[in-house]
Amino acid sequence: MAQHTVLLVATRKGAWLFHADAGRRQWRVDGPHFLGHSIHHLMLDPRDGRTLLAAARTGHLGPTLFRSTDFGRSWQEAARPPAFAPAPAGQPGRAVDHTFWLTPGHASEPDVWYAGTSPQGLFRSDDGGDTWAPASTINDDPQYRAWMGSVQDGTPNGPKLHSIIVDPRDPAHLYIAMSGGGVHESTDRGHSFRPLVGGMQVVDGFDPADITFHDPHCVRLCPSNPDRLYQQNHCGIYRLDRPSDTWLRIGRNMPAAVGDIGFPMVVHPRDADCAWVFPMDGTDVWPRTSPDGKPAVYGTRDAGASWQRLDQGLPAGQAWWTVKRQAMSADSHDPVGLYFGTSSGELWMSRDEGRQWECLARHLPEIYALETAWRSAA
Question: What is the distance between the alpha carbons of residues 37 and 40, in angstroms, rounded to a whole number?
C-alpha cells in the first residue's frame, strides 16, 4: 500500500491539511479547520495513522485540545485538557495559557501522549489524548519553578516547554526543553529530570551556571542515531553526541554575516550527519526577520563542520519574514522533502533536500507549526 505525504499546518487562525500525490507534484487542500482559533500544534499519531491532536486556544473556551480519530473528518474536544494542579492555600497558582507542543508516546505505549504548555508544564495522557494529568513533579518543584522564571521573564509569546522527545529505544528515556530554563533529561518516564546544559552559552552578562538563563529554541533527536541530538538555541547551533553531556557549538561554522541564531531545526531521517536550519537576523535588536530580507535555509552534511546556503527559488530580497521553531519539517522520501511555513503565511517546499524551493501556498494566517505525516493510499 502506497503512502502519501500530508502537511499538517497550524496557524494563528486555524489549521489546514495539505495532501500530496505520490510524486509530491499535486496537492489537495483540506481546511480550514477551527477557523479563527489559534492552533499551536497539530500532530498525527504515527502508531495508528489516523488520530490527530490539535492544541488550540479559542476565544470562548480558552486553552483546550481537540481529537480526531478519522484524519480530521470530525473532531471532539478533550474531556480534560492539560491544567496545573491547584496551588496550596496561600500560594500563587498557575494557569495554562495554551498547549504548545504535542508528542506521541513510544511505539510500545499506543495510547500515551505528552504535551508541553505555556507557561512551562509537562503533561501526559494515557487514553489517546482525551484526558491529561501532570507528567512530572517538575511542574511544581521549587527548583524547576525558579529556573522557569515568571511569565514576564519569558519569550515574547510566553514561556513554554517544548521539544518533548521520547527515545525510540526506551520509553522511559525522555528529553525536554524549556524557554527559558534549559534542556533536561529523564530516565524514569518523566518522574524526575536532570539538567543537560553543559557547553551551552547564554546571553552576555548572565551566568551560564544559572539554568534560568538558558533558552533552547528547538531540540531534535536523529532517527538514524538516537545518541545524537541537534539544537537551535538562543545563542547558536549545537550538537550533542551521547554519552557526552557537553554540547558542541557547531554554528560557529556558519557564515559570519548570517550567524547561527534562529528557531527551527530539522534532521535527516536516515543520515545523522545531515541537518537543516533557518537562520534569522540575530542582531542585538532581534528583528526576527530573515537576514537583510534574503531568506535561506542552511544545511550541513558533515554534522556541522560546514554549512551550505540553500536559497534557489526563494525570494532574492525584500522578504521580511521568518520561521517559527515548530514550522519546519521533513518527509522520509528519497530524496528528502523539506517544508517550512513563514510568519507571513507562506508555505514552501523542496523535493530535493533544499536545492530548489517552490511556494505551495500564500496568504495563510501566520504559521505557528508544520508537521509532516503520512496517509495510506491504495
Answer: 9
Chain segment 42-99, per-residue pLDDT in tens: 999 999 999 999 999 987 778 999 999 999 999 999 999 999 998 877 777 899 999 9
Question: Which CATH superfamily is 2-83+97-377 part of?
Answer: YVTN repeat-like/Quinoprotein amine dehydrogenase (2.130.10.10)
Per-residue pLDDT tens over the stretch 83-98: 999 887 777 789 999 9
Of 183, 159, 176, the residue nearest 103 (C-alpha): 176
Nearest C-alpha neighbor of 128 from the set 112, 151, 107, 143: 112
Distance of alpha carbon 233 from the chain centroid:
13
Report d(CA 66, CA 298) in Å as an integer: 35
Name the helix (H) or strand (E) containing 143.
helix 142-148
- What gap in Å lies between CA 7 and CA 240, rounded to an integer? 29
Q: What are phi and psi of 147, to 5 degrees?
A: -65, -35
Domain extents in the chain:
2-83+97-377
Contact call for residues 93 and 85 (beta carbons, < 8 A):
no
pTM value > 0.85: yes
Sign for the pseudo-dihedral over CA of 270, 267, 240, 212: negative
